[in-house]
Amino acid sequence: MTEHTIIENYQRVMADIAAEATRCQRSPDSVQLLAVTKTHAIDKIRQAYEAGARDFGENYLQEALVKIEQLADEDHPMKDVRWHFIGPVQSNKTRDIAAAFDWLHSVDRLKIARRLSEQRPDSMPALNICLQVNLSDETSKSGVALHEVGALCEAIAPLPRLHLRGLMAIPAPTDNYEAQRAVFRPLSDLFRELQARYDQFDTLSIGMSADYKAAIAEGATIIRVGSAIFGARNR
Ligand SMILES: *Cc1c(COP(=O)(O)O)cnc(C)c1O
Asked: Where would I find the Alanine racemase N-terminal domain in this sequence (predicted)?
């Protein structure tokens, strides 16, 4: 995909965000666009940066660490960017995640949260985290069940080096707007309930290339968009 196309795609998604937010009587800047760059090369990430992207999401730790280092190190370092880890987290990855990322969207176990809090370097601010919720009840998928989210929040909120910001989900794909909204709704209801209990709760990370408009209508504050900006992935 050419440079031209990535910039155009980025602008089109930004315009969609503004239009859908306005339609839902939300402020366009209440929805943040996270550019999901997994599998995409450094030059494409730079193009998205040129287009205005400052938040980037990666799923695979080794790939992400290489990119983060390269993009900070070159002659033209990308400044003021925030790196978000959005992939599954195994225990043996927590130390590297805690040292390299600003955000982690996919916490679904207390054990992982404790490790991250212990391993977050003192020189960095607390790690921003979201709890990943399983909305599709597929036992193979990661994420905590809706009815267990409250208890997990209570256990994680006091951890000193984590900043519990909200909830994230990756529902099974559905292809019409109303059906997509219906899938997100139990999560947005729970999110509002928890917001009343936790002052720092301000992030609902839902919506990908195929369903970000429905997500915005259901209160998304971060949408995670890959293919609509960068085209199809190779793997
Ligand atoms: C890959 C990925 C995305 C982006 O998916 P697209 O459909 O390409 O927009 C968003 N969130 C997570 C967790 C992902 O793994």
From this structure: 26-233
User: Is 84 a pocket residue for ligand 1 (Cβ < 6 Å)?
Assistant: no
Q: How far is CA 49 from CA 89, 162, 229, in A?
A: 26, 27, 12
DSSP label of 171: P
Between CA 65 and CA 223 the distance in angstroms is 22
pTM here is: 0.96
**Tokens at residue 47, please?**
């193009």
- Whether residue 164 contacts residue 144, with contact meaning beta carbons closer than 8 Å, is answered with no
Question: Could you give the domains of the chain?
Answer: 3-230 (3.20.20.10)
Is the C-alpha dihedral spanning 174, 178, 184, 185 positive or negative?
A: negative
* Average pLDDT score over the chain: 95
226 in ligand 1 pocket by Cβ < 6 Å? yes
Cα-to-centroid distance, 123 and ligand 1 (Å): 30
227 lines ligand 1 (CB under 6 A): yes
Per-residue model confidence as pLDDT tens digits over 85-95: 999 999 999 99
Kindly indicate the confidence band of residue 79, based on its pLDDT and cuts at 50, 70 and 90: confident
Beta strands in 63-215 (DSSP E): 82-85, 103-107, 127-134, 144-145, 162-169, 203-205
Which atom belonging to ligand 1 lies closest to the Cα atom of 227? 8
Three-state SS at 144: strand
119 lines ligand 1 (CB under 6 A): no
| Mean pLDDT of the region 119-127 | 98
Cβ(208) to ligand 1 under 6 A?
A: yes
